[in-house]
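FW: tagging you since you asked about this chain on Friday. Here's the raw sequence from the shared folder, copied in full. Didn't touch anything.
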Amino acid sequence: MDNQLFDAVYDANSVETVPYKLMQGVTHFGDPVAILGVCALLTTYGNDDVRKTGKLLTSAFTLSALTIWSSKKIVGRRRPLDRLKKKEPPESFPSGHTNCAFVLATTLSNRYPRWKIPLYCAAGLAGFSRIYLGRHYPLDVLAGALVGISSTHLILKYKQPVLSWEF
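HL: got it, structure written out here
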């Protein structure tokens, strides 16, 4: 079923189309390097509330990244378009970009509830882009979202100790 859903979304002939180019931009909402940059900015600049948000985001990102990285190594699933290539490391499951997008959306929507709907829409679109661009199967994206949301909720549950940490 995962292959069928992937095939329904991915179209190899769409590479030079406007939607494909848009998805290439949207996918960066979950780029781990970009999220690290956001973490650094939030923990360094701004008022106390902004720095607290940065601590929570950094903690959730770290927990989820460790979970994602270890899962990728344990599962060893090849990316959809790398099925025939032996050079690429098998790191499709779960989706790290989707994880990051949902860590960002969950953390920021907890701190700034009025932004919840746009943040989760952006995260969902980032996850969809990973399938559309041929980088992940739908199950990879779903797992990445679940890891991101659950890791963030775990950090938020214990936010008092997290907020007392000094970086």
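FW: The chain has eight helices and no strands.
HL: agreed, and Residues 39 and 54 are 5 Å apart (CA to CA).
FW: great, closing this out.
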